[in-house]
Amino acid sequence: MDTQTANQGVLFDDRFLDKYAGPIISDPAVAIVELVANAWDAYATKVDIIWPKRSQNINFRITDNGKGMTPAQFERRWKTLDYNRLADEGNRSAPPLDLASALPRKPYGRNGKGRHAAFKFSDPYMVRTWRDGLETTYEVRRGTTQPFDVTTVSSRENVPGHGTEITATGSEGVAMDADTAREIIGTRFLTDPNFVVSVDGTLVTFDDIPMHSIQKADVDVPGYGMVQIVMIDSQKADRTTRQHGIAWRVNKRLVGNPGWIGFDHERILDGRSTEAKRFQFIISADILENAVQADWSAFIATDAAWQTTRDAVHAQIKKYLSTFSADRRREAKETVKETLVKTVRRLPPAGRERWNQFVDEVVDTCPSISTEEVGKVAGILANLELSTSKFGLVEKLHELQPGDLDALYQLLDDWTLRLAKDALDEIQTRLKLIEDLDKKLRDETMDEVGDLQPLFERSLWVFGPEFESLEFTSNRGMTEVIRKIFGSDKAGSRQRPDFVMLPDGSVGLYSRDAHDLGHDVDGVSRLVVAEIKRPGVGIGSEQKDQAWRYVKELRNKGLLTEAATTTCYILGSRIDADESGHRTEWDGRVTIIPMTYNTFVRRAEKRMLGLRDKLKDAPFLLQHDVDGSYLEPPQDPQADLLAGAS
């Protein structure tokens, strides 16, 4: 690799510019709108366009009398991808010095993509721009290792005026004719009478707008006179609302800036809607000449003529939009109903009627909601009609705060509902189990100590991850051997043959099978003995000896081989000071572990990642009738030691 290649930096594929600029560089209708918008942003008052005609060898050219650019400005604005106009030039375009008394304009452009529209008409193309007595001409062509290359062609001094001209070097690639170009420009750039555009020497006027795209209406303002509304439908929603909205003219002069809100104090349309990016309304209201502020930036808010005229005009605009959107609403209803027809057919008649009424009302009262969004909501409603919980979910959603709704959205983004429910069900089961154990293990007056053994059978996971296996089950054969040791014939033992009742507690045996090379069961691989002392009973050497006797008896009966590993847990309220350590027998095959109830509960909490405290306000715990004191178990030195080692 040579030094030049190594230092070249980031490379761009030939397709980058097409993807980056999108329709700006591929659609002639979008391209011409962007180039005229650039002239507006430069505060041009006059734009002349020569439309390309291949048969006559006439190339595209657009010339404006805007502010032009110095070489430094051109370098900055033309060469910067994703140029931030707001940061560099602010949110208003100031007039040139010779129009110092004019109001600043609200610019269309923001990121500088519009300049790439010239590539639709030619590659390369030429840019001639002049201001402050200096004119510079540049050639811009698509690059090979970068999106485009800019070369300075010439410069000259003592040039009067200001402006910019873009000229194509060829006439290829434009199928659209000049009449269509005038139509497109006319539907977007006729709001300001002081901004005129000509195509091939002919001014773009209302006459260039086809009849189906323009309507005119006279509005009678009681007590003041008549105003005229020109309603223009561009037929196609643009990327933004900047060429659309309501424009007020008084004596052929624009008041303020066009838009959907501004000084009208009422938003006629949501700027995100299709209609807001499609329509413009030009209001000629010479009756308001005494209601305009001195700088023509707005009307006098308290002027009675302005207030009355504004209300009358808004009413007419709303009427027009309502008529237009009736067909769209009808189409939206039909689309939603056709999409969900299979689901809706399963609804009972009453549910189907409610569903149809819902779709009609949403589309009619919320016209700014897209058909896709209505379809999603209608689909949810249909599924709720079919669910057993009906609309209880809607009530729960209604009760959620905005932050909770955001959390729910993120949850559904990361999880499926079924998977989340499975995980939460397991968490709920384990936390409720901890509460049951905590409550019963602290009750020294509890007589039915046998109630604890079934809880421990579901709590083997507390002892460690190796006991999570579902293969650990009660070993009734071993239980019967232990029962014979004590000669137990208590009723509790007969009712629950899976553990043995003792005078001071109970003992349960839980095993996992061993398998031979043929995968058949071959004895016991792992055995857990859980001996639970009655609350209040301590653990000493005698209790450890007793656990060891269980294992020896099982070994003598041939139920445990040398391949088996056994762990005996002895749980009680307290442990004698000299017996807190583990005891091993049978060459390490048997481990006897004393453990306090408090340690067991705290270990369970550790294994549940402290969720017991974090979720203490969860409904399933509050409904569990848990005393608050159980959420803060007393300190136990051994608990900290063992929990930390788990």
Report on the architecture of this protein.
The protein has 646 residues and is an alpha+beta fold. It is built from 22 helices and 22 strands. An eight-stranded mixed sheet has the order 5-4-3-6-2-1-7-8, covered by helices on one side. Helix 8 (304-339) packs across helix 11 (371-386) and helix 14 packs antiparallel against helix 19 (597-607). The longest helix has 36 residues, at 304-339. The radius of gyration is 41 Å and the shape is elongated. Residues 489-494 and 624-646 have low confidence and may be disordered.
Spatial arrangement of strands, main beta sheet: 5-4-3-6-2-1-7-8
- Secondary structure tally, helices: 22
Structural class: alpha+beta
What best-fitting shape do the alpha-carbon axes yield? Answer: elongated
Strand portion: 15-25%
Q: Kindly report how far apart the N and C termini lie.
A: 56 Å
pLDDT averaged residue by residue:
78
**Helical residue percent band:** 25-40%
Whole-angstrom Rg: 41 Å
Strand segment tally: 22
pLDDT < 50 stretches: 489-494, 624-646
- Tell me about the largest β-sheet: 8 strands, mixed
What descriptors fit this protein?
single chain, 646 residues, alpha+beta, 8-stranded mixed β-sheet, 22 helices, elongated
